[in-house]
Amino acid sequence: MLDSIQLEDGHLTQSQISRYWQDGFLFPLPALPDKKAAAYRAELQAIEADWLDNGLPLPLNTYKRVNAHVVMPMAYRLATEPAVLDVIEGILGPDIMVYAAEFFIKEPRTRQIVSMHQDLTYWGLGAIDGLVTAWIALSPATPASGCMDFVRASHKNPILPHDDTFDENNLLSRGQEVRVDVAEKDKVAIELHPGQMSLHHGLTIHGSGPNASDDRRIAAVVRYCRPDIKQQLSDTDYAALARGTDTHGNFIHVPPPAANFTPESLALYDQIRAQQSQVMMKGAKKTTSIYEGTS
Ligand SMILES: O=C(O)CCC(=O)C(=O)O
User: Fold this and answer.
1) Which of 272, 265, 266 is nearest to 236 (CA)?
2) Within its chain, how far is the Cα of 224 from the centroid?
3) Which residue, 171, 219, 172, is CA-closest to 197?
4) φ, ψ for residue 84 (rounded to 5)?
5) pLDDT at 107
6) CA pair distance 26, 199, nearest whole angstrom
7) Whose CA is nearest to atom 1 of ligand 1?
8) Which letter, b or e, does each residue of 247-278 get, where b requires 16 or more Cβ atoms within 10 Å of its Cβ?
9) Atom nearest to 135 CA in ligand 1
10) Is the dihedral of CA 115, 182, 223, 199 positive or negative?
11) Cα-flanking dihedrals φ and ψ of residue 164, to 5°?
12) Can you tell me whether residue 273 is helix, strand or coil?
């Protein structure tokens, strides 16, 4: 694994920003000190222990995998970590919203994968530059544990055709796979230490293999956007203002949850779920939900 790219006063330099726009990704970047990454992992695991059978309306996995920041304060806190936002500013500018925060978890020695895809395919936001994903490692991400693979400069493509596989071992809602054969030599393995992160553009082709290691592979995945981007397939969408101002009004603002799974936050979660699954499932060949089969 590589040492983190050196930031300048916590911010990306001009040449690092150029590299992001050239490659469609950038890594490994510092996100959290080791101790903080371990503390977030412990906090997540405490929620897993406390809430697995605690009468939640939906399976706990669902809340972890989609829009965790709406119902879990630690996910909101992680998504708005100042050191991460300082880096994101170099890509998006001073006004930053959290569009989504999700935990992508692969248990030890399991077969779950993520097929090669472009994130923006089903989000109804268009083929935009105003969204970037930070993939923050909370455990080691290596080829053995199923780290992500990126295809360099693939973000220069438009949204490409995808096929829905609905494969049960796929962590994506529709098992969507880009209709392009990606050669092994074109995959860049995104190895990260706990506390490091990668950034990727919403059109970058990426995926990941199974976790053959003895540890869990845990990532906090945060999608940041500029307030001027707009949902194109429905009247509303939701995002949390993390830094700066929103003078556009394109999003209903998500507040930080007061505690884990409060009745208010669960109600908001359902509202967002209804809107986003309607957008995401437009054109699906088989009925499913972005909140089903997620783990
Ligand atoms: O965690 C993974 O393996 C894939 C995550 C992913 O597809 C994403 O962050 O966009």
Assistant:
1) 272
2) 9
3) 219
4) -75, -45
5) 97
6) 5
7) 104
8) eeebbeebeebeebbeeebbebbeebbebbbe
9) 9
10) positive
11) -90, 120
12) helix
Please count the residues of the chain: 295
* Tens of pLDDT, residue by residue, the chain (295 residues): 889 999 999 999 999 999 999 999 999 999 999 999 999 999 999 999 999 988 999 999 999 999 999 999 999 999 999 999 999 999 999 999 999 999 999 999 999 999 999 999 989 999 999 999 999 999 999 999 999 999 999 999 999 999 989 898 999 988 889 999 999 999 999 999 999 999 999 999 999 999 999 999 999 999 999 999 999 999 999 999 999 999 999 999 999 999 999 999 999 999 999 999 889 877 454 444 444 444 3
- Choosing from 105, 117, 135 the residue with most ligand 1 atoms within 8 A of its CB, the one to mutate for a pocket test is 135
Tokens coding 219: 């990532």
* Residues whose CB falls within 8 Å of the CB of residue 15, separated by 6 or more in sequence, listed in order: none
The single residue listed with the structure tokens 């098992």 is 175
Structure tokens at 250: 């394109």
Whole-number Å distance, alpha carbon 72 to ligand 1 midpoint, is 20
DSSP string of 7-41, one letter each residue: PBTTB--HHHHHHHHHHSEEEEEE-S-HHHHHHHH
The amino acid occupying position 267 is A
Q: Which of 117, 178, 221, 295 to mutate to test the pocket of ligand 1 (most atoms within 8 A of CB)?
A: 221
Closest C-alpha among 33, 27, 32 to residue 12: 27
Cα-to-centroid distance, 247 and ligand 1 (Å):
30
Question: From ligand 1's centre to the CA of 170, what distance in Å?
Answer: 11
Q: Among 27, 66, 102, 104, which is best to mutate for testing ligand 1, by the most ligand atoms less than 8 A from CB? A: 104
Measured from the Cα of 117, ligand 1's closest atom is 7
